[in-house]
Amino acid sequence: MSETASSRSLVSALRWVRWLLVVPSAFVGWYIGVIVAILIFKANEALCPTHYLVSGMCHAHWSAWIEGVAIIIGSVLAGALVVSLPALIAPTHRKPVALIAYVIGLACSLFVLILMLDLWYAVVSAAVAGGVSLWRVQRARASPSDWKGAT
Hints:
The chain has 151 residues and is mainly alpha-helical. It has helices at residues 3-20, 22-46, 63-89, 94-115, 120-139; strands spanning 53-54, 57-58.
């Protein structure tokens, strides 16, 4: 096997690996948002003065506000990363990949909204953040791998 043939097969294998990582990257983006929200929530609990702790829960007047902010920050991060990461991982066709990720993410968000109507602000913030990420990907110049005739 010649040097160029082996390098072509390696490039082809790496492209397949990148395509296989597109869907898991969306889940990674969602988990990052969830973990950030949990860390903010736990930091709120850890920093709560002892006289506001009742059965391990913080009942300070600011606690509910911080919990809402944690949910919004986590959902914004998840919405943005669910769209951005698959578009970054995909070796080609980044714009359609971002669109598909946004549509599927929006459908999942609407499903959560149906189950828990009181989390409407998380769904709206995730949808807006995902929409902004989609807009940014759609506006980006095509990479050389997206050009016609790319191998």
